[in-house]
Amino acid sequence: MKKKTKAFICLLCVLFFSTIAVAQNNIAGISTSVNEKTVNAVADNNLKTNWKLASKDLQKAEWLMFSLQKAGDVNAITIDCEGITPQELQKLLSVYITYDPMNLGVPVSYTVSAKGKASVLSFTPKYGAHVRFVFKEGVLKKDLLIKEVSVSILDKKAEIANVPLKERAYMNPNLPLESRVEDLLSVMTVEDKMELLREGWGIPGIPHLGVPAIHKVEAIHGFSYGSGATIFPQSIGMGATWNKRLIEAAAMAIGDETVSANAVQAWSPVLDVAQDARWGRCEETYGEDPVLVTEIGGAWIKGYQSKGLMTTPKHFAAHGAPLGGRDSHDIGLSEREMREIHLVPFRDIYKKYKYQSIMMSYSDFLGVPVAKSKELLKGILRDEWGFDGFIVSDCGAIGNLTARKHYTAVDKVEAAKQALAAGIATNCGDTYNDPDVIAAAKRGELNMDDLEYTCKTLLRTLFRNGLFENNPCKPLDWNKIYSGWNSPEHQALARKTAQESIVLLENKGNILPLSKSLKTIAVIGPGADNLQPGDYTSKPQPGQLKSVLTGIKAAVNSSTKVLYEEGCRFIGTEGADIAKAVKAAESADVAVLVLGDCSISEALKGITNTSGENHDLATLILPGEQQKLLEAVCKTGKPVVLILQAGRPYNLSYAAENCQAVLVNWLPGQEGGYATADVLFGDYNPAGRLPMTFPKDVAQLPLYYNFKTSGRVYDYVDMPYYPLYQFGYGLSYTSFSYSDLNISLEKTGNVSVNATVTNTGKVAGDEVVQLYITDMYASVKTRVMELKDFDKVYLNPGESKKVSFVLTPYQLSLLNDEMDRVVEKGLFKIMVGGKSPSYVAKDRIKDSVGFIEAKDGINGEIDYPLNFNADFAITVVSVEDQPGKDAKVANVLVTNTGNLTDTGKLMMYLDGKKIGDTRHYDLEPGEEKQFQIEVSQSNFKTLQFTSKYKSVTYTSK
Questions:
Q1: CA-based R_g, the chain, Å
Q2: CB of 696 within 8 A of CB of 674?
Q3: d(CA 83, CA 391)
Q4: Residue 153: beta bridge partners?
Q5: Is the dihedral of CA 683, 684, 685, 686 positive or negative?
Q6: Residues of 697-727 as b/e, b for ≥16 C-beta within 10 angstroms?
Q7: Phi, psi (degrees; rounded to nearest 5) at 916
Q8: Which of 822, 827, 825 has the alpha carbon at shortest distance from 776?
Q9: Is the peptide bond before 317 cis (omega within 30 degrees of 0)?
């Protein structure tokens, strides 16, 4: 349909336009609404001819359209005419510069000066392929003769070429930021603008304009380019530490190594909330809860940005809940689910740490691919939250708008239009740099307002960070080990992070810690001597990855015999020799099995990964022959310690019954083998807690702790509802007890929560103290429980500590049946413990939520007596003329006069018809936001500004 429409328009143009070959005035064709036969006289280079508009012609609106010989930045128009002064001409004429004759946009703001007998219209250069004059109705009461018109197109390359780079205005750091941005844009060609948005290991830069090249890296658990940087535990392991201070320190170390390698931006961290264990990218996340992801992800961003670097959190948004666990298969999430779960980390971290770039996802938002979602990328991200950085496309996401994936664009040109309209700047992929797209841009077929808007978002960031004056970026030497990489201090930090990430799930008969004096230990499995660090890992140096086998050999006494058998590969049947593994187990006092995922640097070829990007699983049975190996070794009757080295939860139902101990070391980074041995032999008391729920079977998925109540039963006919291991769970070599819960209401509406935690065992250790609430009755369904805060405390044997939390009204709030954020008075359960609370999956499920024993946690409640809500007031501050335009600008103030932070939308109606974009806001109590809204026409009776509940009308004077 679109192709037919274009063809029809082209045919009309051929029939309708008079073609003129006059190079001097840059005009190729003319059309008009009146006196067509003589209109060519205005561009025939002959002052003796003219085009006449009689006074009667000017008593209604008429127009004159010029088609330019080539698109460009129009900066002036000269009109040689009789019967009118320059002042009268300015009152009479609206001038539009447009690339699309069917979509004029708004008129330019111009000044008029006399040049001999001619009038010169001057204005800020605007890109276009057409110029349209609109003669305003009834303004001139006499005849008008136009003899000649010429259009001036800025030759940017010629203009700037003679000005030394350092002397150009935009290179002056003392000028205001917006002045520098506008000045640079004014000398950029369309090719320059498209080049700015191309991705080439970051921002490629434009040398002839002094635009700096900015180098980036993937850095979720270490500097991932080249070889030799410190490899920290994968993100899922960082989430399992539940230690904000530790992850901040790890990110600072990664930041130091980034600075050493002369890069300034990380496409990290991943703030997706992972809700399906089948998804291969679970390993890149911090877990299944928005608060955990916010706190750990926020700590990473805080640490990395403290080194003067830029972060790029991803994947915005809802990437962590794919249909069937298959990457980027949209599940159709509602706005409620998005705002309750998946937008939370991005919003809350931006409010606190102000990251300057963000990567959009392959996913959808309310049925629209994120790559073209103006609602998400402009309305929510920019307007509502105030984000003022630039947006990076996930690799190929813009091209995916075509038939390659989404079918919202017929070709890459249309895909580029959609992405630019959404404000996506850095294009990782093959769209903005496509020759057809660049050619279309030069012809004026892309929306130049969108292109300029998007370029501005990137240029502001570069100017704001002083990168034009001081750019530390240098091309990466992929064969160089940079100063400070993998330093002893960073190795120690990687080992500590790995230690704290390890989660002990089973320890029957306190078999762990093992004695270092055992006679024989069998270390078995594909991961035993092949440590897997995870996706987005740099190419390891020889010997950099310390395997579990290496760690065990280093830990035990010299008299201990350590046997090793691989048993099988990570995936497939080739090379399996389970019989040898069984024989080794039979010969040992204990068998340590290391099973799980293969996930390693993509720089290593010929390896089939089972986890990571584009490596989703249909089942959660250990891959290949690993499950068979597990069962065969367990059947020997020897004590078996299973180490799950994986990027996701697996079905460990068999292991839970048949292994004496089970622990998860995730994808533990380069020091993972040593850290695992530290836990196995008691040099470190495990304190990791599960960041994701472990199901009993894949059939239970999606399965996460913070679910909402069911309208029927919870159990299957052939399987109970409950998980194998719940969120927040993890054992220790010591024991803890909770007491003295105190809950009090403060005058501000905050709830103060204090509890005492005691180490009741004989070994020092860390406890992760977790705060949960249950909103018992509400106007909408709420989750059976929600994590609200946590802290990690170290306790010696017999030691007690008071742990304090504060719950704000915002943390107690919900989105009601009108999607308004409110706090509803009523009963809240408050629970403090070392894991997520238990429940009985039957009717009255919320009544059952809580801790059963003091060793797990303590329960309380508060009958909260207060209601909170926002109340937005709208004030029209002014409606002003825009100089040189047949348009006005309305200044509208929105103020939150309520007592709770909330979001809202502002819409404008001109004489009863909605015009312009819907504007968004997110305001704290007492906060205000002023909007400048362009009114596209000056003649109207009323302007009405409305929010969900209020309306203010402005009447034209």
A1: 33
A2: no
A3: 52
A4: 74
A5: negative
A6: bbebbbbbbbbeeeeeebeeeeeebbbbbbb
A7: 75, 175
A8: 827
A9: yes
774 and 846 in contact (C-beta within 8 Å)? yes
Cα gap 233→872, rounded to integer Å: 46
Cβ-Cβ contacts under 8 Å for 957 (sequence gap 6 or more)? none
Below-70 pLDDT ranges, the chain: 1-24, 884-885
**Long-range contacts of the stretch 710-719 (C-beta < 8 A, 24+):** 710/845, 713/842, 714/841, 714/842, 714/845, 715/841
Q: Residue type for 261, please?
A: A
- The string of pLDDT tens digits covering residues 722-765 is 999 999 999 999 999 999 999 999 999 999 999 999 999 999 99
| Helical pair 626-634 and 578-586, crossing angle rounded to 10 deg | 30
CA distances from 162 to 153, 168, 284, 741 (A): 18, 10, 50, 75
**What DSSP string describes 415-433?**
HHHHHHHTTEEEE-SSSTT
Main-chain phi, psi angles of 346, to 5 degrees: -65, -45
Q: What is the pLDDT of residues 525-542, one digit of tens each?
A: 999 999 999 999 999 999
Residue type, 38: T
E strand or H helix at 4: helix 2-16
Per-residue exposure over 356-381, b if at least 16 CB sit within 10 Å of its own CB, e if not: bbbbbbbbbbeebbbbbbbbbbbbbb
Residue type, 668: P
> Shortest CA distance to 815 belongs to which of 906, 708, 926?
708
654: number of CA atoms within 13 Å, CB side?
16
The strand pair at 265-266 and 214-217 is best described as parallel
Does the model's pTM come out above 0.85? yes
The residue count for the chain: 957
| φ/ψ of residue 198, rounded to 5 | -70, 145
Residue 757 — φ and ψ, nearest 5°? -120, 135
- Residues 758-772: tens digit of each pLDDT: 999 999 999 999 999
Tell me the per-residue pLDDT of 11-68, one tens digit each, with 9 for 90 and over: 344 333 333 333 468 898 899 999 999 999 999 888 889 999 998 998 988 999 998 8
Distance CA 216, CA 204 (A): 11
Task: Say what the pLDDT of residue 570 is.
Answer: 97
- Other C-beta atoms closer than 10 Å to the C-beta of 508 total 12
